[in-house]
């Protein structure tokens, strides 16, 4: 049976194809792209005005919602698509059906089953009417003759009944849903031009762009080159202070115009950036280590530090600064992830580690810098400056001997009469606004449950077992805590004011006294090992009750101050050398020596680690919405959601026990499981469950976690399930020995 291909001369079939194609585009696009009710956004912003009205992100969002024409363009495009779809659907509904079943009775206007006499009579009447010699239509006469033959001729009737056609089986006809004018020779050049443009230019460009972006970015839209940069410097500097951390952050390739088109280098930067450098002071401008010396890195560093200092800049610089600030929280989260990956890599090695994992202080500094960026505050500033209308000169009223208010929690727990008296420098209207903002701040309570899952005795922790700590987080507003004299779990910011006096500023090295102590402390920090690799002496001290149950738990702020002091003192000890170039050369030599000690298997582990970082976000996609509560931030240019880090640490040894879990879905309450291997030696251990905000200063919490590790149960060697030969030789030996024993038994019986 032959086949025939033909184009649609009338163009009717093409309308069916076109209608289906347009419908498949318009219907999903309307669902996903139709702008939501702008009144709803206006109402949402109006509900947030009382608390967030002074925030930079709120003012920018309000202006954008009022002036944006993108929703109108989207609506116009979608309405145009629906108009085309409805027109095509109407066109299709008016098309005649051309493909109908052939019925000779209908052609002769007879009822099915008519007699032969009626068929001949009707054929005679129609022939006289439509015969060409009588002036009739030739095509109609041919149809009548064909129908008469199908009903009177025996072979034609058999073909009609069998194949549906009096002429017998026909060639299979395939219709192409394209009008005939497309293949017309007159239009060949136009058709080829459109075809080449669509399939040889547009499609490759779209696919290439998508592929190029997919291989350059990770799941969090962070450049893979940036991730590798962070990995290099966190490996090179395990104990990273805030000053060094800021330099590494602003060296990210997201701020390089060659890697990111959003980043810009303006001609006015040669004038405005040096002016900001003079105002900021010492920011290591002369450091020659790449990429810190590159222009894009220096500009990003200056813009970030000016943001933390709350300095006013010109409009062009302000636009670039908002870009740097907006990108920083996601980059810091990536640094936390990289630090955790390196920690896991170091702890997974058997025996002595080949390199030092990033210290706990380095990872916590990343978290703290995220808080500082969101709130636009330097490290040594009081957390009270997060509130509106608070200035530096007002803090002397708060930290006076009468009130001793140095943290957000102190201000909440103060009596209302004392609070009004202390804030008398504010008017009634400003005071109410401060109280509204203070009442919106989050307060989290933590409930922990310690157990060993998949074990017969889940309450007892044995050496080497997998410990699961279930932490239940409950979020409430500070407004619910008014009148409560003390908050549960001592907050980390309870000694912020004292620390701001005692500590030196982050960007300056003024104190030269404790240099001698710095050397010994630095040595201790270097000799520390992860939790799973403690020395016997350290574990014996812990087992002998060095961490007693009634011992006072230090606050997170005190430990943080001690660790940061150790880091700053070590930096000052390094700074006491002759010249900066000598310090850089020595640090480079040390890092090069460490890198040279890595063997070939280490390089393979590095590659595996990089691949795991690239696949991490794809495996950790969450189905829950990450929209929690908007953060109150006076100087952050984008609406930031309230997220937290939750982890377990050994603050005495400055090591991570469990990897930080990024809590992004905490609206009211959430349950999080933290797992870690128990120490291999028995004894009592003192850990800490730490909750850190990524947006607020002074709201971090710590809760002690005591572990009593018991001796692991011994596995019985004579258990029948273990009596399995490992090799064929052992099996044969066992059979031979069994045969010898049987023969000996038979001889004894015979005797």
From TrEMBL:
Transmembrane segments: 14-34, 69-90, 189-212
Chain spans, region Disordered: 487-605, 718-751
Top-level taxon: Eukaryota
InterPro entries assigned: C2_domain_sf, DnaJ_domain, Ig_E-set, J_dom_sf, Sec63-dom
Gene Ontology BP terms: nervous system development; post-translational protein targeting to endoplasmic reticulum membrane; SRP-dependent cotranslational protein targeting to membrane
PROSITE patterns for this protein: DNAJ_2
Biological role: Mediates cotranslational and post-translational transport of certain precursor polypeptides across endoplasmic reticulum (ER). Proposed to play an auxiliary role in recognition of precursors with short and apolar signal peptides. May cooperate with SEC62 and HSPA5/BiP to facilitate targeting of small presecretory proteins into the SEC61 channel-forming translocon complex, triggering channel opening for polypeptide translocation to the ER lumen. Required for efficient PKD1/Polycystin-1 biogenesis and trafficking to the plasma membrane of the primary cilia.
PANTHER family to which the protein is assigned, alphabetical: SEC63 DOMAIN-CONTAINING (PTHR24075), TRANSLOCATION PROTEIN SEC63 HOMOLOG (PTHR24075:SF0)
Quaternary state and interactors: The ER translocon complex consists of channel-forming core components SEC61A1, SEC61B and SEC61G and different auxiliary components such as SEC62 and SEC63.
Protein name (record): Translocation protein SEC63 homolog
Organism: Paramormyrops kingsleyae
């Amino acid at each position: 049976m032959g086949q025939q291909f033909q184009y649609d001369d009338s163009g009717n079939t093409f309308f069916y194809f076109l209608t289906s194609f347009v419908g498949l585009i318009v219907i999903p696009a309307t669902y996903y792209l139709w702008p939501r009710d702008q009144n709803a956004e206006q109402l949402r912003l109006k509900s947030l005005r009382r608390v967030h009205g002074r925030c930079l992100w709120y003012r920018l969002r309000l202006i954008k919602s009022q002036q944006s024409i993108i929703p109108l363009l989207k609506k116009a495009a979608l309405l145009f698509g629906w108009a085309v779809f409805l027109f095509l659907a109407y066109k299709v509904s008016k098309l005649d059906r051309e493909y109908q079943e052939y019925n000779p009775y209908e052609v002769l206007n007879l009822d099915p089953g008519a007699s032969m006499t009626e068929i001949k009579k009707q054929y005679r009447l129609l022939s006289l009417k439509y015969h060409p010699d009588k002036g009739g239509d030739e095509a109609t006469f041919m149809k009548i003759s064909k129908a008469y033959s199908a009903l009177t001729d025996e072979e034609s009737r058999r073909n009609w009944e069998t194949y549906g056609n009096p002429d017998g089986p026909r060639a299979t006809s395939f219709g192409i849903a394209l009008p005939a004018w497309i293949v017309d020779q007159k239009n060949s050049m136009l058709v080829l031009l459109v075809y080449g443009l669509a399939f040889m230019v547009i499609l490759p460009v779209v696919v290439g762009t998508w592929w190029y972006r997919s291989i350059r970015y990770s799941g969090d839209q962070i450049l893979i080159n940036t991730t590798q940069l962070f990995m290099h410097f966190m490996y090179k500097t395990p104990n990273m202070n805030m000053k060094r951390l800021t330099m590494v952050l602003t060296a990210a390739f997201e701020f390089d115009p060659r890697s990111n088109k959003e980043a810009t280098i303006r001609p006015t930067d040669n004038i405005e950036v040096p002016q900001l450098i003079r105002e900021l002071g010492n920011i290591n401008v002369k450091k020659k280590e790449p990429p810190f010396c590159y222009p894009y890195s220096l500009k990003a560093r200056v813009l970030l530090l000016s943001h933390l200092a709350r300095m006013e800049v010109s409009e062009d610089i302000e636009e670039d600064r908002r870009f740097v600030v907006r990108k920083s929280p996601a980059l810091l989260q990536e640094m936390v992830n990289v630090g955790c990956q390196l920690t896991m890599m170091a702890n997974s090695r058997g025996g002595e580690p080949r390199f030092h994992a990033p210290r706990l202080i380095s990872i916590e500094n990343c978290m703290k810098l995220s808080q500082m960026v969101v709130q636009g505050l330097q490290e040594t500033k009081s957390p009270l400056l997060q509130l509106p209308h608070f200035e530096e000169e007002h803090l002397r009223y708060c930290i006076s001997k009468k009130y001793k208010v140095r943290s957000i929690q102190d201000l909440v727990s103060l009596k209302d009469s004392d609070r009004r008296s202390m804030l008398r420098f504010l008017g009634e209207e400003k005071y109410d606004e401060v109280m509204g903002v203070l009442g919106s701040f989050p307060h989290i309570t933590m409930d922990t449950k310690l157990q060993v899952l998949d074990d017969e005795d889940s309450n007892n922790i044995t050496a080497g077992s997998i410990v699961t700590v279930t932490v239940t987080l409950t979020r409430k507003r500070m407004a619910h805590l008014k009148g409560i004299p003390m908050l549960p779990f001592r907050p980390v910011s309870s000694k912020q004011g004292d620390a701001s006096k005692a500590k030196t500023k982050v960007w300056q090295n003024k104190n030269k006294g404790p240099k001698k102590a710095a050397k010994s402390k630095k040595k201790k920090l270097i000799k520390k090992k992860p939790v799973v690799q403690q020395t016997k002496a350290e574990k014996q001290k812990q087992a002998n009750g060095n961490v007693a149950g009634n011992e006072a738990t230090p606050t997170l702020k005190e430990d943080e101050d001690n660790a940061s002091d150790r880091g700053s003192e070590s930096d000052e000890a390094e700074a006491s050398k002759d010249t900066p170039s000598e310090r850089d050369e020595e640090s480079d030599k040390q890092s090069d020596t460490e890198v040279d000690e890595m063997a070939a298997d280490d390089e393979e582990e590095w590659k595996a680690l990089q691949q795991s970082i690239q696949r991490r976000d794809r495996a950790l996609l969450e189905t829950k919405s990450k929209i929690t509560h908007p953060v109150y931030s006076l100087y952050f240019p984008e609406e930031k959601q309230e997220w937290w880090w939750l982890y377990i640490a050994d603050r005495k040894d400055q090591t991570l026990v469990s990897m930080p879990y990024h809590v992004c879905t905490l609206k009211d309450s959430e349950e999080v499981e933290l797992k870690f291997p128990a120490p291999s030696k028995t004894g009592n251990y003192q850990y800490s469950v730490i909750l850190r905000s990524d947006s607020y200063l002074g709201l971090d919490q710590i809760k002690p976690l005591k572990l009593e590790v018991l001796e692991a149960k011994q596995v019985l060697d004579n258990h029948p399930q273990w009596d399995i030969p490992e090799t064929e030789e052992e099996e044969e030996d066992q059979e031979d020995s069994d045969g010898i024993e049987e023969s000996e038994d038979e001889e004894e019986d015979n005797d």
